[in-house]
Each structure stands twice: as structure tokens, then as C-alpha cells.
Amino acid sequence: MESIIHNFVLPGQVLATSNSETDGGFLRGHGTYIEIVQDKESDNRHATKAWGNDQSNYNVVMQTDGDDASNQEDDNDTLKTGPQRLIASLAGTVQRVNKLISVIPTSSSVYTGQVGDLIIGRIIGVGGSRWKVSLTCSHNGSTREGQLPLSGVNLPGGVQRIRTSEDVLAMRSLYKEGDLVSCEVQNVQRDGTLILHTRSLRYGKLENGVLTTVPPGLVGRRKNHFCTIEGKVFEKEGANDMQIDDEEGGDVDVYLGLNGGIWIQRKIPSEWENTQGMDRDSRVPLAETLQKLRQRHASTRVSTLMRERIARVRNAVECLRLVQYQICPESIESVVRASLMADVRVGHMICPEWVVQLTEGTRQ
Amino acid sequence: MTCRFVNHYQLIFECIKQHLDKIISQSVIGGHRQKKREDEGKQQNSMASISHQELPQAKLQTLNELLQKPSNSRDVPLGVTMPDDDGSADKTNTRTQTDIKEAIQSIQDALSSLGVLPPNSTTQTVWKRSIPFSLYQSPKTSQSLTTLMPLDRLPPNAKIYRNLGDGLVEVWTHSLSVERGDTSRPLQGNLSSKLVEYTRGTMGVRRPFRPGGMDDEVDEDKDGGGVGDYLSEEAIKRARDGLTKDTKEAWMDGTLITAPPGVSFEVGLSYEDVFGVSDGEDVARRKRDDAAEIVADDTLNHDTRNPTLLGGSFPGSQTFDKRYFDDDSLFGDSSDDSSSDEDEESVEGDGGSADVGDQPSHVSTTKDNNDSAELDDVDELLSDIHDTLQSPFNQSRKTLDSTSPLIHPPIKTERGDINSKKDLAARKSWAVTEYIPITATTDFHTLLPNPALTFPFELDDFQKQAVLRLERSECVFLAAHTSAGKTVCAEYAIALAMKHCTRAIYTSPIKALSNQKYRDFKNKFGDDVGLITGDMQIGADGSCLVMTTEILRSMLYRGADVIRDIEWVIFDEVHYINDSERGVVWEEVIIMLPDYVNLIFLSATTPNTIEFSEWIGRTKRKPVHVIRTGYRPVPLSHNLWAGLKLHSILEGRDGFNPKGYAEASKSLLPSSAVKAAEEKAKGGAKGKPTPVPVKHAGRPGQQQGTKQDWLSLARYLEREGLMPTVVFSFSKKKCEEIANMLRSLDLNTAAERNLVQSFTIQTVARLSPADGKLPQVIATCEMVKRGIGVHHGGLLPILKEMVEILFSRNLIKVLFATETFAMGVNMPARSVVFNAIRKHDGVQFRELQPGEYTQMAGRAGRRGLDKVGTVIICCFGSQPPDQVILRNMLTGSSTKLQSQFRLTFTMILNLLRVEDMSVEGMIKRSFSEFATQRALTTNEYPKLLTRGSKTLLKLDEEFQKDADTRVGAEDIEDYYFASKDVLSANNDLLSYMTTSGGTAGGALATGRIVLLTANRKQIQYVRAPAIVVRAPLVVATKSGSSEPTIICMVLLPEGFTSSEEDTQSKKLKLGDLNFIGRSSDRSFIVQEVKLSEIYLVASVKIKVDSKIFFQEGVKKAPAMTTSNPFAGAKTMKGRQDDDFFGGVTARGMNAPSTSKVTTVSQEDQVVNEVMSHLIKTEAAEKQAGVEILDLRDCAKNMRQGSSEVEFRQAVDQMERRVMTVRSYQCHNHPNLEKHYATVDRKETLRSRVMTLRHLLSNESLQLFPDFLQRKALLTELGYIDENDTVCLKGRVACEVNTCESLIVTEMVFEGMLNELEPTEIVALLSALLFQEKSDEDLDSELPQRLVSSCERMRGIAIYLGEKQKGCGLPVDPLEFAATSLKMGLVHVVYEWACGVPFSSICELTDVQEGSIVRCITRLDELCREVRNCSRVVGNPTLYRKMEAASEAIKRDIVFASSLYVA
């Protein structure tokens, strides 16, 4: 916590000063800009100013000594550029990797994509052989759009695409306006536009579940964003009378979209797979089986118990959002547990007093 | 009336038409099905409503009639197919006016084509089809609240709004709720399954999407259904027709594949159905069975066409004789191997279980029946697991030796097995070697009526096979010689992709090859071909993309869009997978390609093609058809060039000809030597006159031909008409040298010279004037004019291409080339000359491998031009190359495909970045892990594991339950573990001691009393006293490992009884192993005991005649013992009163067995004595513990130094452990054995289960430790965090593919590049790309800053090397730095970037021009990658700098466009 406070900068705050960018002092990264100091106010060019009015807890000490070349460089470069200052252009925390200094924005309403991120978005437009996917998930966030090109989706059944105009016309049959999809960031273009794709069969249309949105900053990057909250979490200790449908394991799937979209649905029971004829040597490819499972998932009623569970998870996420706590399976689980312990009804979970109480354990 | 009627209808039709237009515009053919349905509904709606309000019912009827009328017109709107009519056209339509008719017809056509309305059916029959339930559901966007339904199809809960008559009702949509169950498929499924059907590659034909009703189905339904969800015969027939016709024709004819929605073709329709293959196959097979008699005429013709075929082939009706394809005859070996192997295994298994079966009778006292039955189970399981655990090693060993043992080539199996459908289900092998029978040439054309591509020549059989497989969208592995015509396969696949509107990707190992292939394909297929290499990208939208494998890999990592369109990926020269540096790329690509992509592998002949295909098939989960052929269209003749003459040593498919060799060697010797040799031969030393010292002396001469030699060779070739010729020599320098020797030679005619002249002028015109004057350019141009060319890596790329093109146009008569020329593209010559047969492979000088030789020699012989290809091996020295080497090179089998899989940082980072791939998965699926992984699954480890763990659970439970039966032995579990500890400690000590042989320092000498703990199947004993009767002896056991064993006489626990019949039935007697005898009311057994069963060695040692209990010879020669008259005696009691003393004196193993004759009473006496000793010992152990022998004394002589201390400690520890064991309460428990056995069973199973689990887990992967180490390094360096999430640094590293990404990343983050000018940056980066060795020190002329940066870069490399070493990777920091950084071109590139002309920079270095150009081209690629890095980092300065750097080097000759491309 300490370090976060010390690393926190505001726009305009000087992060580092140095002789010039080329003298090896620092490297400009995201969220910063360089200002050339006109008058040489300080002789101590090699020393570096720290963060604004802050004390010396976090200092960037420029290391221009030690290099044989530095003296000579000074002579060369003073002519070209004067001393420079690296200034934060965003409010956020400072990240230093070797000599690279960048500011990671704390403003959580802005989502900047990275290759490989999981996105939960809504289709808002079809055309030009691509889908427009709205990535806006927080209520007051700026509108961001990603593009999901037709060539970036898997056709149902895992078949390969035929490059004709037919499938361009049939695009709506895959996803139409209003559909929710999960996809992966394939590429970030220069202007920041996200190009999405559904790399594998895990991505695709989302049905029969609940979407809740949180500020993107609350969803941290982790190894796996397709999480599962096991059914036993929901079972109250000692009370075994809660009957779970024998068909469903009672697990809940939570997809943590890095853009802040969080999708909650029933986990596809493993029994289905067996009934779906997963015998390995049959000629039915895996893709088709998965697709059938999905269809079945989308068309099968969710039992009341399961609905309650999903709702509980959803409200747990909401609780975490309200207290601005990071959303991860562990935190969700702990809130769910707390709510069960406290015997709170699902609907009451987001009452302010409960929110505080339920997240208390998690926050510590 | 008519008039009004017309007007009314005009109106209605206009209305409908508008609707239709809307539909059509929204969904042409493959349109949105739901939308259509919706509209359909709407139309019905609107029609209905109109009819209700404005028209009398009768008129509606008329309209309906009109609509029902079949149309005669055939114009198909918007390319939609019209199904065939049955021709029952109504002829009464004259009563309406023609315009109405037309209007109606067009609408009807449109409707029917969209599937809204079948042309010859009534409106009711529209609904006869099963309706997907989602159609009942009103889409959210729809405004309508009601919908039309047929009455007979109403869902149970539907609320009817009103009844329209005619069996139609209007219902409230909301009442048609979702809960209709999932018998009918939801909409999405419908569409997708259509797509699946229509687009799945399996059918091989692109079928147009034709939504909606298909008349056949309706008919079928009318016929009373019964067809269910499956296709009727008729439908299959139709489908077959449709498939065998061209798609387009089928379209026109209206012959369509029809299937009810939701039925995938897989269910009812298979290839056999479509192509009728299975029948044909059966017939063919039957034919083949009695093929001995039948010699079909047509095949004779066929055979004569291929003289080579005739020689070895089977003259049956089956053209596809096995040997024709497999000259290396692998099938025989492998199948034999596998079958015998399996037999053995199964026998073993049987034996094991049989043992288990009859053993419990021995121990009936200790167990009740229930128990023993259960024991059976567990023991069986244990032995199962044990057996399978043994097998993977055998298997992996086997696969190394030859092909995989598991492959059962179907061609060898019984006819019944090949029933392909069943076979597919029960498939064990993914590599299919079965051939499609083609008996006559016409068969091929019937099987392939509409080829995607036709060839101007009749295809060879293996090509036909391949093409047929491709047509069926199956993976093909084609192994054939270079000139055999593998390209046909590639071309066909490309044509198929074009036909199917998908993509084919062609990958080649080298960029130059890509360029050539691009030109070839472009000539063949036109503009729809693209080329993507590191430095250029042309037509990236094409149906066929040519690229290097590296590019494809990075596309896969990125998940590029292109990937999703791919239908075919063609891997040319896939044997490149053996390349240690780049081979891993092929594996990565094969693993990562999506499953729906079909793969084609073109390879030179390799011995383990099947194994490799098996791996691919397994990885991709689809069969790979292996087509191998040793066939050469032009046979080769191999010759030695000696004494100005050719000496044939191998012709065509004949064997090696030693005569030719002898002649050659003779002709090389000076005349005097010849005489000498002749004399010598007369003297009797027949054979090779090859004195070894001469051979060595001859070697240098062999490498080096003089100018005279070459001139005479060239003249000879010219005279004999053997030009054009490719001369392979294995260094760039040698190529140049020899070419220069022939300066006086002019091989071109004047006309040819003119052609060459004009071509060279054209080529040079692409260069800047200054570059045109480069010495290499001038020299090459001059040389090619005389018909002589050079081709090697040092040549400027453009010159290389020029030479290639001239050669292919037959304007170069002699080409001096390095090995790269043998790769890929079809550039055959009349003859091939080998300058030498030794080459430097980067590590050492070695002889050419057979595979390499074949590849190069295969360049000889132009198809259609030459009858025979001549291969000449030059012998310039006084000796030809060694005969053995030659023979091996010519006839040996080529190199096996071997996995070069290794982990790279780029791979790890890229895989960690995305969620749905994992490094573990990658390793698991790699070729190197293949054998192990296959063994795991085929041995049903998973099944065994689940079985094992289940049983384990049960055992645990039972153990808990039976707790109360173990009174006095509650601590049995702890006791068990403690005694296990003692056993293993003792084992360690004793085996250490027995390494020196003998009696382990007296510890295990004959007569020593030991305590044993063993849990065998029949007899268990714990801490049972025994006496050693034979000292340790190392015996090779069955599994091959040798473990010393001793033979003991063991006192069995009290209460042990054995059935005497059993002893007798086995005809055992005292002196045999496993003899169970009784004495003093206790039983004893003579047994072989492993060291690991010795629980402790007592200090007591008694004198005993060991031969009484065990006679060495007995085991081997049972006949000897029969001399003993008392052999059959049952027990010892009967022979008690004989000699007293014999046994006591008898001692020592070495005494000959016949020298001592002991009488029965003596034996008895001894036995009794021993027994009493043992019983005493037992009692002693139970009371206070037997005194332990001090092993330290025994081992006195064998240990020295530090091991002594260790040994002492070990002994101490062992003794302490024994004390612990004795302290347990149950140590003295009377029923200890039983309890002990229970625990032992449980724990053994547990450990086995653990082993299985380990084997099945990632940890058992060979590369897993390596992976962990690398990951640790990446974490330490901050590329990934502790959760394995890729951090900023890691993302930067992902951008760099061309070189060591870590070094570049570190440089970026150190800001090194920002400090430099663009020119300096490229100079610096060149060090990462240059590969040749060059010891050049950095020039003093370079800017100081650059020099220091180079030093810093080296520092970084060393730092990284140290880090890697620190993480346990086998990396030497200095070597790492040296191999990844080569400063040789820093100066050159710096000057180049500064704008110095190419000619001047060439003078700076002795690196050849071609290498410089290659380095700079790759540098451009690296610049682009670094630019991307800067974007990831967010530093615009660097971005601009890299742009500038890229600009600075991109000019003139270095980036002159390829001759092939432009």
C-alpha cells in the first residue's frame, strides 16, 4: 500500500530529469511525455528530481556515471538537445522496467487492450465483413469499439471458412446485434483499435447467463480468465440439505473479461459431454461436440437453485465493484462464502450495509 | 371479372415481390435462415390477411392453385438452383394472362428457390417438414405477435388465435414457449450444421448452400416417412450423383445433395456411399486374393510403361504392389516385430495371472476364501500396472530401432479387417498405408470424374493415389525421390483450394525456394497466388500463399486471420525437420495448426515415414495417408570417374557392382602399381589391393582435382552428351575455384550465347550502374556466357536467380553448386558430378549420408528427355573412395526423421500469452514425446490409473474397517514403513558391498544367518530367519537389469502348511530351488532372495553344507539330480538315521558336486540342526533382538576416503532404524505376516498408482525440467510474473522472431538503441543476425559510441548467458555471447547505412557478397520488429529511429527485386 501511494503521480508531475533522452537516463514509456527544459536552471544535471513534492522514498537516480561513453556523449549531445524532463501525462502509478518509465493509469474506466486479453463485448454493428463490438462496460466509460473481422471467428462446428460473399451475407446468423460474445484481442492497431478474434472454440457467443460490468481496472491480468467457482463453495457448512440437481455439478463459470465485462453462467456439466457421445474414435470432431454442448447449454433451462447461485455470484461481483476491490475468483468466492455464512439473501447482498460487511474479510 | 382479378393479383404479387426482394437482398443463398423463416411467416401472414379482407375464399384457392403450379421456366434467379421437376406441368394455365403467369412464375421460382415453397407441392406440404422449434419462437426483433402454423404440428401449449382453415392456424407466438425440449434443434444449430455439412472438407466438393425445403424430403415424408433422420437410399444415390458431378453442373442440373436439416452427412453418408468405394475395394481385394491366377491384360500395358516397375512388381491385377511403393520393405519388419512383441507380452500377462490364480491355495491357512478372491483382483491389477509400466521403455526403445511396433499396416492384415468403417472406429494406427485400388487407367477417371486440375500427362500411380486422397480431403504424406513428381500433389491441392474458395498454404524451408515456387505457381494458377517472406509480401489475399515455415509459425502464434481460411497446408521438403536449428519450427507449426486444416507433406524417402505420419495423425486426430515410392521416372546410373573413364558401380535397381569399383581403382594406379597389384592378386591376396596408408595419402588428392582433371572431365561430358551437368562441391570457395579452372572452356553455341547475353543485360539493368560493375556481377556474367555457372550462398541473390533461370533454360551447361541447389525446385540435369563425398557439416568433416547423396544424385535425369541419369563420383586421387563407404552411401537407407524439438524463449512467451495453448501441451504433442505419449494411452494407463485409485480407496476403507481385528498390531502401518526403511537401508549397504563381488566381506557368506522380510505371491514372511546357502551372485534377470541375489533357506512362519501334492507335482526335492520342506514341526523353503529383502544380517554364522539345500547344477541340468535315489522323498522325516557327520564337514561352494555324497540321514541331521538354529534366532529376535553383524568390519577393505564416513553413518542409521522397528508392538505379533501382507498390498498399490499418476502428468515430460528452468529465468528477468502472466518485457520479446529475442529486449529496455543514431543501430543489430564466423575486430574507424555499444551488447549477452547458466540451463555464457553475436559485419553495415556504395563495402571484408546481402535483408526485418517493440513500449523516438534505420539500408542491390517475383 505504501509503495502505491509513493508511486502515484498526477499529470504534469515530473518523473525524471536528465540531460537528454539520449544520454541513457531514462526511456519514455506510455503515459509520459518529454519536455525540454529551456533554461539550465540546475547545474546538477546528473541528479534527478523525484516525484513532485514527495520525499525520497521513491527516487529515480539517473546513472550516467560508470559508462565510458557518457562524457563524450555529453559533448556531442548538448548541441542537439537540452536537458529534458519526463512528465506524467496520466494519473496513475509509475512502472519502471530497467530504464523504461511508464505510467499505468489508475483511471479504471479506460481499457487499453493487450494482445491475448479476454474480452466480453456486445455486438453493436454488422457490416463490412466485420462485427463492431462494444467494449464499453463501465457506466461512465468512454465508448470503445473493437472490431471482430469475419475472418477472425470460428465458424460453428469448427469448419473452415469458405471465402465467398455468401458468408458475408450470413454474418448475422453467427452473431447479430445485441449478442454477447467472448473473444480475444488479436492485435492492437496503431490508433489503439482492437482487432479481436475467437481463436479457439472456447470463445464465441454467450447465452443463458448473466453479464455484469465493472471498471476494467478491477479485473487483473491473470493466467486464466475462464474461471469456475465450484459448487461446494455454495454449500453451507454442515447443511447438506441443499439438494443439487444430479445433472448439474452446481459449478458456476465466471469469465473475467479484461474490459470489465464479467459473464456468469452455469458450468456445462461434465455428464453432458458423456451423453453427447464423446467417444474418441468416432468421426465427430471435437468442435462439433463442443458446439452441441453449447447449444444444449443455451437451450436448457437453468434450475432455480442454479439461478440463485448465479445471482449470488453476480451480486458478489457487484459488492466487490462497489468497494473497488479486485475481482478474481478468490475474492468472489470469499464474498460468496461470507454471504452464505451471514445467511444473506441474494437480493440483500448489495444493500450498502451488507456490502461493507460481506467484503470486509476480503478486503483484509 | 378477369380484369379485376388481374388487378387484384397484380397488387398482391407486387407486394410479395417487394417482400421477396427484401429477402433476397438480405439473404441471397447462404442467407440468414431465421430471417427467411420470419419473412416466410410474414408472407403467409400478409397473404392470409389480404385474402381474408379483400378476396373471397374461392379466389384464394385459385391463387393457391396458381402458386402450386410447377414452373416450367428454368431461369434461376441469383444463381439459385432449381430442383428438377417431375414434369407434371399443368397445361391448363392458359386461362390466365401471360404476364400474370410470368409474374407468378418468377415469384414462385424465387420462393421455391429460397425454400419457402417447394415448386410442386401445396402450401400444406411446406409444413410437412419437421420444423426447428426455434421457428415457433418469435424473434425479438419481430413485431408480430401471431404466427401461422400447420394444425397438425402445433406444439402442445400453443394458444390458437384463429383458425384459417386448410389446416392452418394462427397462433400466439408467446404461447410457443421454449420448453419444447431439445428434440428439435435451435436455430443456431441448424445453420451451423448446414455449414458443417456444406463446408466440411470431408466431402471434397463445395456444395452450394440451398436453404429451405427440398422436394425430395417432402416426397419422402409423403411416402410415409420411415426414413427418420437418416437418408434414404435414393437420397444417397442422388448425393452420390451430385458429388461425382462438378458442383457447377450439379447446380445447373439441380442435382443436389439433399438431407433433412439436422442430419449431418456423416451419419448416413460416407465416402463409400458416395464413391462406391467399399464395394469396389472389396471386389478388388477378392480379386487380389486369387490374383495369382489372374493377370489382367490392361495392367500389362501399364507395367510396360514403367520398366522399373516391371522388375520388382507383382504381376497381379493389383497395380499397387507393396514393393512398388516400399522398396525399403518396412512393412514386413515392423509388423512382424509388433506381432511377436505383442504375443510375448500377452503370454507374460497370462502367465502372471495364472500364477495369481493358483497361488492362494498355498496360503489357505492365512486367508479365508473371501480374502483370496479379493487378493486376486488386487494382485491382477498390480501385475497389470507392473506390466504396462515395463512396456513403454521397451516400446520407446523399439521405435528407435525401427518403425513403431504398433503400426499394423492394413495392407498386410486380413481382408476382413479392412472394412474401412469399422476399421476407422477401432483404429489403432493413424498412419494409413492402404491404397485405393486402381486396376485400370480408366478407373482413376471414374473415381475422379471432375478433377480440380487436369494434367497434360498421365499421372503416375502414386500421384493418382495422392490426388484421390486429396479429393477426399485427407491428409497425405508423400515420400518420393526429388524428381518423381511430388509437385503434382501440391498443385492439385492448390487447385482444390481454389475450387473450394478456401486457401492453400505452401511452405518451404528456404526463402529462395519460396520465390521459385511462387513463380511456378503463378505461371500455373495466375494471379491468385501470393508470396509472404520476411522481406516482401505480394498478393497476401491469394488462394495460394507461398511462405516460409517461420512466417507460418508467427502467423499461428498471432492467430492471424489467414489461418481460418486455410484448407490445405503443404509442407515441402519436410525432412528438413531434422535440421537441428530450424527443425523445431516444423513441429511447432504442425502442432498448432487447427484440426480442420488438411496437411500435405512432401518429403524425400525416409525410413520412418510411418512413424512420423503416425505422430501427425495422432496430433491432428485424423488419418494420414502415407504414400511412399522409391520410384524414379528416370533411373540413375552411378559411376566412378577414374582414369579418364567412367566405371559403373551401380545401375538402376541392381546391386552394387564391385567389378566397376575394382576397375576404377586399378585404372587410378600408376602402371607400375597395377603390375604390383596384379602380382599380389596372383599371390593369393584376392580382393582389395587397398593398403591403408595409401588411402590416407590419397585423400587430399581425392578432394582436389587439378585443372587438367576438370578439363578432361568437362570434355568427356561434352563429348558423351552428358551436359547439362551439376557439379556438387561442398564449399563456396571450391565452387569458385573449379569454375575458374575452366576459364578456357566455352560450352555454348553462338545462338545460346546471344540469349544469355540478352538475359544478363536484362538482369544487370535492374541494378544501379555502380552495382552493375561489381566484380562478382561481371565475373558471373562472363562465366554464364560460356555456359558455366556457379551457384552458392555467397552469390548475390539476383545472380543466383539468374543462374537458376539460365540453367533451367538449358543455357548453362556446367553448374558448380553447393548442396542447397539440391533442395526443392525441379532443376534437373542430365548428369550430376560429385567433386567429393566428404563435406563439412559445421562440426566436422564427414562422409555424405545416404539421404544427402540421394537428394543430390536425384538431380540427374530429366524426365522425358533422358533415358538414364548419370551420377559421377570423381576420383582424382590415386585411390577411389573406400568401397564400404561408397556402398553404404549409394545403397544405405536415408536418415530418419527425428525430432529436433526444443524449447525456445520465444515459444514459451508466445504460448504463455494466449490462454488456449500451453507449453506443456506443446511439449506433450511434440514428435520427441510421441513414443512415450502413445505408449501411455495405448497401454491404457488412464484406465489402469482410475482402476488403481478406486481399488486403493477400497483397500483403505477396508483397512479402516478391519481395525478391530488387529488387536495387538495397531501400529502395523507405522511398522510397515519403518521396516521398509530398514530394508532399503540394508539394501543400499549390501549392494554397495557386493559390488566388489564375493560374499560382501563375509556378510553374506554361506552359513550366515539373516532375517528376511518378503511378500511374495505365495509365501509371506516378515523378519523370518534364514541361512545363506549361496553367496550373492549377479544374475541377469529377464528385464535385463542385473541384481545380485542370494539363495537362502528360510524358516517359514509358524502355522504355515503347504499342500504336499503341490510340492510333488512340481517334482521338487531338497537341493532344488523353491523346495518346501518340513522339519521340527516347522516349514522351511529354499529360495532365491534379493538383497532388498534382507532385513538384517545377524552376527551369527554357522557351518553348514550348503549343497544339501542347494546344488548349483540343479537348475540347469535336472537330470543330474535324478541320480539321487531319494529324490522323490516327501519329507525329511523318513531319512533320519544315517550318517551324522557328513553335513558338518561339507563346506564350500567350490567343491565339485559329485565329490561328496551325502546320505539321507546326514541331510536330515543337518537340516534339523539348521532348523534349530533358525528357530532359536527367531525366538531371540522376538525377545530382545538378534545381534546385528557389524557391517563396518565386513566392508573394511573396500572403502576409502570420504565414502567411509558416509558408510559409517549409513550403518549407524540402519542400526537405529532396526531398533525402531523392534520397538513396535506388532513386531512380536504372532499374526504379523498377515497384517503385514495387507499393508504391503495396499502400499505397493499406492506407490504404483503414484508412478502412473506421475507418468501421466506433465512432470514426466522429458522437457519439463527444461521448461521450468526457462520459466524461472524469464521470471527472474521480469518477462513474466509469478502467475505466468506475460509482462511488458515479455510482450516486447514476443515481437522479435528473427534473432535472440532476449538480447534485443534487454537492449531496448536499457535504452541502448535510443542513444544511437539509426545508422549505428543497424550496425549494432547486424551482429545479432550475421552467422558466419569472422574474427574481425571492430574497426577503429567506427564511431566510439558504436564500439562501446557493441561492448555493452556483448556484456548483455554474457549477462544473459550467466543467468541462463544460473537457472540450470546448459549454457556457457561466453559461448552464448559468441554464438549469438558475430561482429563481422558491423563495420560493413555501418558503412552501408551511411550510404557507401556496395562495391566499396565489399572491399571492407572478405565476407562474400551474398552473405552481406542476406544479412542486410534480414536486418530490415529485424528493424521492423524492433519498431513494433517500440510501439509496445510506448516510445516514439525509437520508433522513428527504427523507421529511419530501415530506410537507410533499403536501397540498391540489397533490395533489388527477385527475378522470380517481378
From TrEMBL, chain A:
Task: Write out the similarity annotation.
Answer: Belongs to the RRP4 family.
Keywords from UniProt, A to Z, are:
Exosome, Nucleus, RNA-binding, rRNA processing
Q: Where in the cell is it found?
A: Nucleus
Primary location group:
nucleus
Please cite one Gene Ontology biological process associated with this protein.
rRNA processing
Question: Which Pfam family, any one, appears in the UniProt record?
Answer: S1_RRP4
Protein's name in the database: RRP4 S1 domain-containing protein
Q: Which species?
A: Cyclotella atomus
UniProtKB/TrEMBL annotation, chain B:
* PROSITE patterns linked: HELICASE_ATP_BIND_1, HELICASE_CTER
GO CC terms, sorted:
cytoplasm
Q: Which CDD domains match?
A: SF2_C_Ski2
UniProt lists compositionally biased (Polar residues) regions at: 43-52, 392-405
What are this entry's molecular-function GO terms? ATP binding; helicase activity; hydrolase activity; RNA binding
Q: Where is the composition biased (Acidic residues)?
A: 327-348
Q: List, alphabetically, the InterPro entries matched.
A: Beta-barrel_MTR4 (IPR025696), DEAD/DEAH_box_helicase_dom (IPR011545), Helicase_ATP-bd (IPR014001), Helicase_C-like (IPR001650), MTR4-like_stalk (IPR048392), P-loop_NTPase (IPR027417), RNA-DNA_Helicase (IPR050699), Ski2/MTR4_C (IPR012961)
Report the protein name in the record: Helicase SKI2W
Origin species: Cyclotella atomus
